[in-house]
Amino acid sequence: MEILVIEDDPVIGKAVQMGLNEASHACTWVREGPAGLDQALTQKYEAIVLDLLLPGEHGFSLLGKLRGRGIKTPVIVLTALGSVSDKVAGLTKGADDYLVKPFEMAELLARIDAVCRRATLKPAASLQTAELSLDLATRRVSCGGTEIDLTPTEFSILEMLMRHAGQVVTRKMLCENLWESDWEGTTNVIEVHINRLRTKLQKGSKEPLIQTIRGRGYALRAL
């Protein structure tokens, strides 16, 4: 994995870099807050190890800017600040884990693996395709800036189409997703839901978003 370490202490920074390299990870080590922020914003990393008392910018400020810019890279705070209030502040500001110095390298490696594993298992909170936006948390859908009111079934169909944007989604796939059944009869219930969904989306879009692929199924037009 590519891991960014933002740590000003040369002894700790070198030890962490060496430990990560020995564990077959690629490590970029930066000693100042502004330089660390620039690295995190311009390069892609699987995880970030972040000290708090950094030259140029406090770690909490740096973390807030990362989350404010939409950077979701897992962050492990590694610091000497070990009070409960410090830990709560770090997690509240968007850290995925908090490890207090002194620490064991084996524990840091285990925590990096854990936060990266959780990140890969975590479903996206929202989906975006062209001018269409779907929020899984609030179950709101908007198209071209216009909010669209969908039934639960329509929402589920749209979610599946968006997860497979640009690909064909068959009637069988939709049936299995909606009703946990592998039955695909001659009923036109799927077509009815698709047509209603297409009509609602058309009000907020300049072009038809749902395409019928004759003999195969449906596809959501991708960017």
- Domain count: the total is 2
Helix count from the secondary structure assignment: 8
Helix content: 40-55%
Strand content: 15-25%
Terminus-to-terminus distance: 30 Å
Indicate the CATH class of the largest domain.
Alpha Beta
- Rg is 23 Å
What string, H for helix and E for strand, traces the elements in order? EHEHEHEHEHEEEEHEHHEE
**CATH hierarchy: architecture of the largest domain:** 3-Layer(aba) Sandwich
**Average pLDDT across residues?**
87
CATH topology of the largest domain: Rossmann fold
Structural description of this entry:
By secondary structure, the chain is of the alpha/beta class. It folds into two domains: 2-121, Rossmann fold (3-Layer(aba) Sandwich), CATH 3.40.50; 126-220, Orthogonal Bundle (Arc Repressor Mutant, subunit A). The chain is 42% helix and 22% strand. The strands form three sheets. It has a five-stranded parallel beta sheet, sandwiched between helices. A four-stranded antiparallel beta sheet has the order 6-7-8-9, with helices on one face. A three-stranded antiparallel beta sheet has the order 10-12-11. The two termini are 30 Å apart.
Quick rundown:
Helix content is 42%, strand content 22%. The protein has helices at residues 10-22, 33-42, 59-68, 84-92, 105-121, 152-163, 171-179, 189-202; strands at residues 2-6, 26-30, 47-50, 75-79, 97-100, 126-129, 132-135, 140-143, 146-148, 168-169, 210-213, 217-220. The mean pLDDT is 87.
Keywords:
2 domains; Rossmann fold; Arc Repressor Mutant, subunit A; 223 residues; 12 strands; alpha/beta; five-stranded parallel sheet
